Amino acid sequence: MDRPRTIARVEVFPVRLPMIRSFTFASGSAGAAGGTAPHVFVRLTDSEGAVGWGEGRPVPQWSYETLETIATTIRHYLGPAIVGLPVTDRWGLHRRMQAAIGRGPSTGQPIAKAAVDLALHDLCARAAGLPLRAYLGGGADRDSVALSYTVTAHDPAAAGEEAAQARAEGFRHFNFKVAVAPHTDVAVARAVREAAGPEAFVWADANQGFLLHEARAVARGLAEAGADVLEQPLAADRPHLLRELRRDCPLPLAVDEASVGPADFFGYAAEGSVDYLVVKVTRSGGVWPTLQQIAVAESAGLPLLVSGLTDGLLTKLAVCQVAAAFGFAGPAALNGSQFTDESALFPDKAAFEAAGTVHLGDRPGIGVQPDVGALEALAAKFDVN
Q1: Pairing label, strands 7-18, 202-205
Q2: What's the topology of domain 7-129+372-379?
Q3: Can you tell me the distance from the alpha carbon of 304 to that of 286, in angstroms, rounded to the nearest whole number?
Q4: In which band, very low, low, confident or very high, does the pLDDT at 357 lie, cut at 50, 70 and 90?
């Protein structure tokens, strides 16, 4: 019997990419125009020389991880723990990573683990000669996912203009942040709905920004204004408040920050507290635990929404590959391209994303990788040991 292919090397490339627009939300900011956005890329090489790529986008206000902690965690803990593991052993991958960085109430460095997980899935699917969605058991013919445009304005007129411009560019679905300027939330929802049209899916994301009485009041207004769902209205560590809101909330509800793993989502689904699973691969620690969350949602009869952490193109395609494997065609609030210039790493980006749609293509694996020379040049600027 041939020896199994094993993980031979784990390399980490921490970089900062230019921010082209500012992005604020109730719990903080993903960056400001003129600044930079931290990204960490991972390259796995197996015992036969095949490679796979992963990416993590740390946003400390969404997760406690930073560019520095992700890079050092992978280099000094996760990487050494997985060298020698058979590349097909995804269950074993997460067992080893959890043994190296333990779980508590959360996954334990989920973005770092997600970057490694993505790289392994990319490697395995490439070795199999299949697009990731087919490797996961889906049909390769499901090759596109519609994006949801993130409206950043908190003035109703500006929000309406922004949504109208995005619609002209090809976007058909929209999400916007509430609880940043609460006095304008309902008016913004109304303006976005009017600009988006009746067929659009319009979702409001509070990022834990409301108290219970505020959430009750704004939910009624958002429902009347035409929003389709309210995401994470309350603090993630207070599920009893969500149960209270659920009793008389006129809008479907979704949790994001409060559901960092399959067990979390199982609890919310079993209680009937939520109406959607928000698929966020980086928040959940990677593809493998996300598949478990999707299985819970399917068992509970709950539909999917897809979002991210202003991730780059590599993660965006990976998440869309996962979603497409389960027949999901959108909307996906994977908005990194609205805020980050990654043209140096992905000069052919237009081939994968255009007119508000991600096109997955038929390349094996995730389907895209960064320009290695440009990545090494950017990574060389940082001394993260």
Answers
A1: unpaired
A2: Enolase-like; domain 1 (3.30.390)
A3: 16
A4: very high
**Nearest of 122, 95, 136 to residue 367 by alpha carbon:** 122
The CATH 3.20.20.120 portion of the chain extends over 144-359
- From the list 353, 369, 358, 321, the residue with the least C-alpha distance to 139 is 321
CA atoms lying within 13 Å on the CB side of residue 104 = 2
CA distance 197 to 194: 6
Evaluate the omega torsion of the peptide bond into residue 331 and state whether it is cis, within 30 degrees of 0.
yes
Task: Give the pLDDT confidence of 209-230 residue by residue, as tens digits.
Answer: 999 999 999 999 999 999 999 9
DSSP codes joined into one string, 279-315 = E-HHHHTSHHHHHHHHHHHHHHT--EEEE-SS--HHH
- Select the CATH number that applies to the domain covering 144-359 from these four: 3.30.70.270, 2.40.50.840, 3.40.50.2300, 3.20.20.120: 3.20.20.120
Which residues contact residue 185 at a Cβ distance below 8 angstroms, ignoring those fewer than 6 apart? 178, 179, 204, 218, 221, 222
Separation of alpha carbons 137 and 295, rounded Å: 13
Q: What angle do the packed helices 110-128 and 313-325 form, to 10 degrees?
A: 70
**What pLDDT, in 10s, does the model give residues 298-320?**
999 999 999 998 899 999 999 99
With contact defined as beta carbons under 8 Å apart, do 116 and 93 qualify? yes
The DSSP element (H or E) to which 232 belongs, if any, is none
- As a 3-state breakdown, the chain gives helix, strand, coil percent values, each rounded to 5, of 40, 20, 40
Residues of the chain with CATH 3.30.390.10: 7-129+372-379
> Could you tell me the maximum CA-CA distance found in the chain, to the nearest angstrom?
67
Indicate the residue type of 316. Answer: K
Q: Which residues contact 302 (CB under 8 A, 6 or more apart)?
A: 269, 274, 275, 276, 277
